[in-house]
Amino acid sequence: MKAMFRFCMIAVVAVLTSACSLLEIKLESGIEPLPKEQLNMRVFSRDFSTVFYSQVESAANLIERNTDSIPIKSNSLMWKINAEQNLQHTIFQASPTAAMVDTWVFTEQMAQFFESGAGKNVFGEQQQAAIDVSNNLRNQFERTIKNFAASDFKKNQAFVKQYVARYPIKDMSFTRQSAFTDWLEFHKISEFDAVTTFGTVPEVMSDISDRMAMIAEQMPKILGWKAELYALHSNINADEIQRTLTSISDTSAKFQQLMAQSPEMMQSLAVDMRTELTPLLDQLSASTDDKLKQLSVERQALELMVKNERIALEAMVARERAAAAVDLEQISQNAVEVVFQELTKTLKSLILYFVLFLLVVFFAPLGLGVWLGKRMQIKKLNGSKKQIDQKA
């Protein structure tokens, strides 16, 4: 009896252990982490962004320093602004695979734009600097991407060439669309199978942290470049204003010296000069008023632009926070559902094994005793009959 009781207890413990193990596996699978290869893709894309920003800014600054042409200066500023904003859009996508594919396409588009496309003459004699940097970034990205998909590299490279030929960058605004949907069609992959998981909670929070850090680092620089671009195309010429003020100051000093030497002649000359210079002074005053009004309007426009950028940044941060909250709520809800499902299965299994345990421990010995009692009674009756027959 004791041996049977020990056996039943061991069986119950084994069932509980297996149920807990099953629960752990289900909980892990309920929040599926990103595969290691996709995590490596994400890390590489973020590292590449630092190299991209550094090389583009260095080349654009070099071009801007070596020219006096306002269109070329303007193009160098637009290159920094639009290239870096587009790279942020390509890298910070939900799927690491989408980010890799779209970044590859963007580097190829930029190289084609400066080398043989619509932007092959935007920097004049310094065009080669932009070509060299663009080709270097494209080649560097391709060398690294071979490590992630060496078997499909040629096929993906063919897709990139075809897509860039079909959808080239047309101007310095760098207007473009994501190439990930076309890449899925090229590989005949369903959109529903393209993204299977966003990662665990720590992975999602790390992605959001990277986005916020990148925005905080790049946004002040981009706003500064936009302000420079705006000032470059305004009508204010500081050198011309300074030369005019210096000339007026010199003329005033000479008049004062002449008036001290011959007061009578200078008094008559002053009357004539007043008559002659009054229209000129009126015109200068009107022109100065116009310039001040224009400066005020441009200052207000600049303040409005900075305000709009700040509002856009705040809205983007709010959207990212809301999206993160929704993702966390969905993940928590899925985890709770999985826990309760597994607890229900475990309790059902425990009840079943407990009933079997009661049957084995209590009812089995009782039934065995009844059966043995009946057998013994039958044997006694058979023995009594034999003795009666023998006496007879």
Automatic annotation (TrEMBL):
Keywords: Membrane, Signal, Transmembrane, Transmembrane helix. It comes from Shewanella halifaxensis (strain HAW-EB4). This is Conserved hypothetical methyl-accepting chemotaxis protein. The keyword Membrane applies. The chain crosses the membrane at residues 350-372. Residues 1-23 form the signal peptide.
